[in-house]
Amino acid sequence: MSETTPRRVRVTSPRTVAARAQRVPPAREIDAQTLLGEVYMSSLLRSQLRLALLALAALAVLVGGIPLVFWLAPELSEVEVLAVPLPWLLLAFAVYPFLFLIGWLYVRAAERNERDFTDVLDRS
Predict the structure, then answer these.
(1) In Å, what is the CA distance from 56 to each residue of 61, 65, 106, 107?
(2) Half-sphere exposure of 62 (CA within 13 A, CB side)
(3) Membrane spanning segments where (predicted)?
């Protein structure tokens, strides 16, 4: 008995173009409102809601904290700056730069969330 290597056999399909699995882009999943699309959208909405609640909490602490400080320390209510009582000065003028800052930070973070979301969609 002689040991010979078996001859190679090439196996081919009678169909020359086999059907390949089509990748569906995540954006199409969202447009078609499939379960996967709902998962993508709910993650974006959850992150945006969390951000909005954080901005709202910062606003509540800032605007609600000023009267609380004057209630806890009533002697501060007697202080006047340029003939304007300090509580009025703070609530009428000093709070606006902080409101602007909260809004600016919120917009930047919301845009970052959306950018991260589109990056996830592009990678998929």
Answers:
(1) 9, 13, 10, 13
(2) 18
(3) 51-73, 85-107
Tokens matching residue 115: 């950018």
Contact assessment for residue 55 and residue 102, using Cβ atoms and an 8 Å cutoff:
yes
Q: What residue ranges do the domains of the chain occupy? A: 52-123
Q: Which helix (H) or strand (E) holds 15?
A: none
Percent of the chain at pLDDT > 70 equals: 81
Residue type, 8: R
CB distance 101 to 59 below 8 Å: no
* Per-residue pLDDT tens digits for 46-83: 999 999 999 999 999 988 888 888 889 888 888 888 88
Q: What is the DSSP string of 23-61?
A: PPPHHHHHHTT-HHHHHHHHHHHHHHHHHHHHHHHHHHH
* CA distance linking residue 30 with residue 42, whole number of Å: 11
* Tokens representing residue 106 in the block: 């919120």
3-class secondary structure, 81:
strand
